């Protein structure tokens, strides 16, 4: 959508490529969904015959690279599969770069001599797979980092992996009870993982030390948009402006400028609460003067995790609730506020900061306008969305991290929300959830992770032409 048409639609109250979505979400429920794929039914995994997913008729799947198995290089696959992106590989294969959201000083997986911090158990793995989920090659690609939650694919064939923590030897222990004094390096940064060569393991410190979640890159400007997931505190929406356009540099350079989104004319605007349908805001950006602050005396983890965001809010930055998934699509950054919105009648408010069941925001980079694309009216429509990706038609795939059954849900440009996939409950693991959805080359396969005690990756394929994925 061109700038003039976008502004015209804003004036009409429609605002952007997701025209009508906010009205559908806020005013009492989603529209009926002819763009769905039909009723969900239990489908057996082609790998071992177990039922892990409920899918529409005609869809199949295969799980692969589960926690505790071996990579093809012989090392063990860690758990907590999370954010992921697919890149084109040779002979029609896909190259997946996958996060592992492992917390605590549990020791690095893979080769500890290559680890950023040999005591930290998170990082990324890189796999070459067929479009039917058959693993051809796999190995660790970044290790010694911590709580690698999500991130984002870069157009120069790299993945930016985000640490959702500020743990380190300079900070008191976090909620998990792990002993931070055992760590050898500070955490809370983003790291670049090239697809075709080894990661350097060098953090981009100027992009901030905070509870990073996702990254979305705008190739027209070279800006990297970042989300923050502070469970018990306000979160912010950031952009990192590197010293040189990453496409020209061939990588993401440190030393740039970190900024935080603010609403024009409304300092510290609270966007975590319920919004009017298609709420639209003009925005500006405030500088973060000290993106990588130094601490003495091992302050409380809760103090450190707010140190960067507090700087922005003191300058008037907007307040969000738990910003998680983000994706750039056709000039717009779509990002998810997991607990944003109003509490629906009959729903129990979630714990932590934010009492809603989820919002989807759309930020058009050229006009610098922010618009509410969708707000969940109740948990049965959308329950605590997390990771997000976009299909070739512009339909968003939302991974749920809800309190009951968790779904992959589609949100179309016209405001229709529909159920595409339900996770089969796992005995003894009520916290299992979807994460890391990403379409492979050509759109034949949707790859997704199940984050669980025994996490795994899954390839899903079928008659996509029946709907709007």
From TrEMBL:
Q: Which domain of life is it from?
A: Bacteria
**What protein does this entry describe?**
Alkaline phosphatase PhoX
Organism expressing this protein natively: Nonomuraea marmarensis
List the taxonomic lineage.
Answer: Bacteria, Bacillati, Actinomycetota, Actinomycetes, Streptosporangiales
């Amino acid at each position: 959508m061109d700038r003039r048409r976008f502004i015209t639609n804003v004036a009409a109250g429609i605002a952007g490529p997701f025209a009508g979505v906010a009205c559908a979400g806020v005013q009492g429920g989603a529209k009926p969904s002819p763009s769905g794929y039909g009723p969900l039914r239990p489908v057996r995994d082609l790998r071992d015959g177990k039922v892990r997913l409920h899918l529409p008729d005609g869809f199949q799947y295969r799980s692969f690279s589960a926690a505790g198995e071996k990579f093809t290089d012989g090392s063990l696959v860690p758990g907590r599969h999370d954010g992921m992106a697919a890149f084109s590989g040779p002979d029609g294969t896909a190259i997946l770069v996958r996060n592992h959201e492992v917390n605590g000083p549990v020791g690095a997986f893979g080769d500890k001599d290559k680890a950023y911090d040999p005591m930290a158990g998170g990082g990324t793995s890189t796999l070459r797979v067929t479009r039917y989920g058959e693993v051809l090659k796999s190995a660790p690609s970044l290790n010694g980092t911590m709580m690698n939650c999500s991130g984002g694919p870069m157009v120069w064939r790299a993945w930016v992996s985000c640490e959702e923590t500020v743990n380190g030897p300079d900070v008191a222990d976090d909620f998990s009870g792990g002993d931070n004094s055992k760590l050898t390096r500070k955490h809370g940064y983003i790291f670049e993982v090239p697809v075709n060569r080894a990661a350097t393991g060098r953090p981009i410190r100027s992009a901030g030390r905070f509870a990073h979640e996702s990254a979305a890159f705008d190739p027209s400007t070279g800006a990297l948009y970042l989300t923050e997931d502070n469970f018990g505190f306000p979160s912010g929406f950031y952009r990192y402006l590197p010293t040189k356009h990453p496409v020209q540099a061939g990588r993401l350079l440190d030393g740039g400028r970190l900024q935080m989104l603010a609403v024009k004319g409304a300092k510290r605007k609270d966007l975590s609460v319920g919004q009017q349908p298609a709420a639209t805001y003009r925005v500006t950006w405030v500088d973060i003067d000290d993106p990588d602050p130094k601490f003495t005396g091992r302050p409380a983890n809760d103090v450190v995790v707010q140190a960067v965001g507090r700087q922005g809010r003191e300058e008037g930055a907007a307040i969000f609730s738990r910003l998680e998934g983000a994706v750039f699509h056709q000039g717009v950054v779509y990002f998810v506020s997991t607990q944003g919105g109003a509490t629906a009648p009959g729903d129990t408010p979630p714990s932590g900061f934010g009492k809603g069941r989820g919002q989807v925001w759309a930020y058009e980079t050229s006009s610098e306008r922010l618009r509410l694309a969708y707000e969940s009216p109740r948990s049965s429509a959308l329950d605590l969305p997390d990771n997000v990706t976009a299909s070739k038609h512009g339909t968003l795939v939302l991974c749920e991290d809800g309190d009951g059954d968790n779904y992959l849900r589609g949100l179309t440009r016209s405001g229709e929300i529909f159920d595409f996939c339900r996770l089969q409950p796992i005995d003894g693991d009520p916290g299992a959830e979807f994460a890391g959805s990403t379409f492979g080359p050509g759109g034949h396969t949707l790859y997704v992770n199940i984050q669980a005690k025994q996490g795994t990756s899954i390839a899903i394929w079928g008659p996509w032409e029946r709907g709007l994925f």
